[in-house]
Amino acid sequence: MSWTATARYGLEPAPGGLAFVQDLLNTRSAGKPREPDLLQTVEGARAWLDQALKSWSGATQRSAPGIELTAEDAQGLRDFRNDLDQILQARTGDSAPQPGLAASLMTLPTALRLDEHGAIHAEPRGTGWRQVASLALIEAYQAQHTDTLRRLKSCRNTRCLTAFYDRSRNNSGVWHDVRVCGNAANLRNYRARKRAGADQA
Is residue 56's pLDDT more than 90? Predict the structure, then answer.
């Protein structure tokens, strides 16, 4: 499986279908140095989605839905990605979501299906970006019930913001890569403390 958006930051994907949510978040322009936004054009969005659905199918052992994206869908998908990121950051206490944000996401269609083995599956509905968003919310919902959603975070470095899956034992990670973003932040803090100490002397 190749999660193209997440792989460009050298990260391991989140487990199972939650990797789809992580990969969607990592389509944005992020990282150090900045990577391009994979959803900036409809061609880029289609290329990302084709690969992400194949990887999702491999991770979940389910057939990928066929989803067609238009130019308008690329913008809708970018808007959804930003809303989803704000909600996930609010869950980890890094920020507060904008008022009315959750209400804009409550109209996404989903259906429940009983398979031949008696298992119930949630299936995305709608078309275009709404179907992608429905799939992402289904995976986020399932991860919430397995208590793994809280481990999906955005790097605390505001110049980075890469989405990573926190594999630390106590779920205390805040940087997508401690060497890249953590050391830089610690160095900035150290220099600021030194300057403050010199000003007081």
Answer: yes
